[in-house]
Design a protein that fits this description.
The complex is a heterodimer of chains A (114) and B (109). Chain A is mostly beta strands and 114 residues long. Chain A contains no helices and 11 strands. Chain A is 0% helix and 54% strand. The chains are: A mainly beta (114), B mainly beta (109).
């Protein structure tokens, strides 16, 4: 069945290390969103792509975060260097053509930076 | 930018009806969506209002009033499994999907 796949599901890393999170959107979906969820900030939009082109990444700390879509089947979110305040659940979601009347979320990557 | 406000918590009893309100500010948008998220899970889509008025999907209904910058989610015949967080979200004119802070619904027996 069609679903958004995120890897890894869990990641524990030390402060200063590079972290790469991956997302496979649903085949045929042309919009991809990256969100960060914490208790304090809720669901924050970090970046989003349409037809693989970045539309807005103003929600990301530019000095350490980067988001890319090297091809239509893969989106990546990278943190370098990671910090304890980056600990959160990171969600990827994809949507189809036209109005995003429904965004499908992956199961998320739970990141812990120690 | 876009911003949405919703109550942080709502409590109701099984079988009751509950309404979760959402007010928003935006410079332009296509529609208002609602998502459900259980603890430890991912948000899942519930409904979308592209036009003013009421949309009904089973026990859930959603309403939008563009003139009032307001929408709500109505849950009827509440069940224990409806205990979750509920988010309103704006699909903006720049095709961004911005979420409110979420409402934690607790259904009591």
């Amino acid at each position: 069945d069609a679903r958004v796949t995120q890897t890894p599901r869990h990641k524990v890393t030390e402060m200063g290390q590079e972290v790469t999170m991956r997302c496979q959107p649903i085949l045929g979906h042309n919009t991809v969103f990256w969100y960060r969820q914490t208790m304090m900030q809720g669901l924050e939009l970090l970046a989003y792509f349409r037809n693989r082109a970045p539309l807005d990444d103003s929600g990301m700390p530019k000095d350490r975060f980067s988001a890319e879509m090297p091809d239509a089947t893969l989106a990546t979110l990278k943190i370098q260097p990671s910090e304890p305040r980056d600990s959160a659940v990171y969600f990827c979601a994809s949507g189809g053509e036209g109005e995003a009347t429904e965004a499908f979320f992956g199961q998320g990557t739970r990141l812990t930076v120690v | 930018g876009q911003s949405l406000e919703q109550p942080s918590e709502v409590t109701a009893v099984e079988g009751a009806i509950v309404q979760i309100n959402c007010t928003y500010q935006t410079s332009g948008f296509y529609g208002l969506s609602w998502y459900q998220q259980h603890d430890g899970g991912a948000p899942t889509f519930l409904s979308y209002n592209g036009l003013d008025g009421l949309e009904e999907t089973g026990r859930f209904s959603s309403f939008l009033s563009r003139s009032d910058s307001y929408g709500y989610l109505l849950l009827q015949e509440l069940q224990m499994k409806d205990s979750a967080s509920y988010f309103c979200a704006l699909y903006g004119s720049a095709r961004q999907l911005t979420f409110g802070s979420g409402t934690q619904l607790t259904v009591l027996p």
